[in-house]
Amino acid sequence: MSVGNQEDPGVNPTDRMPPISDADMTTEQRQAVADYAATRNTSIFEGPFVPLLRSPELLDRVQRVGEYLRYRNALPRRLSEMAILIAARHWSQQFEWNIHTADATMAGLADAVITAIAEGRRPSPMDEDEAAVYDFCLELLLNKSVSDATYGRAVAISGDQGVIDLVGLLGYYSLLAMVMNTARTPIRDDMTPTLERFPV
Prior knowledge:
By secondary structure, the chain is mainly α. The chain contains 8 helices and no strands. Helix 4 (77-90) runs antiparallel to helix 5 (94-106), helix 4 packs parallel to helix 7 (128-143) and helix 4 crosses helix 8.
């Protein structure tokens, strides 16, 4: 079912929730930005966190979950980044895709796997652990559930904690994608909108 217009949220120039100047921030917003900078050890504040700043307590709680999921979850980094790319592809989220294709490449995910995900195809060939993650993610996102066989393969490669962290990755990066798609958060000038919209 198609609802509303189908503009590409990563390309549309109308940023509904642009950066808030320091002078216009509330005390709570300034503190949320400071906490983000301290947690992530960075001075860069961009992407989904710009619109999330409209709800500073939500931003604070979300970014702390994200810090664990992105940097310290139980999965190998290559598989984590693969799951993030699957979420970004599912939501056609250009900013998220651009950030994490570079991270996925650095983590050792093959270019052919990344390209297949971008095109909405099942990658072939894949390593056994990649196939288990791919099937788990696609089933959960598309079917809203996971079959016993697929669940068993995911547990075999990552254990119970890895499965829960995998679900967390899909949920967290889907949340960020929905925030950016709603806010029409633009990509950076040095990014290229490489994802095609899926047919509706």
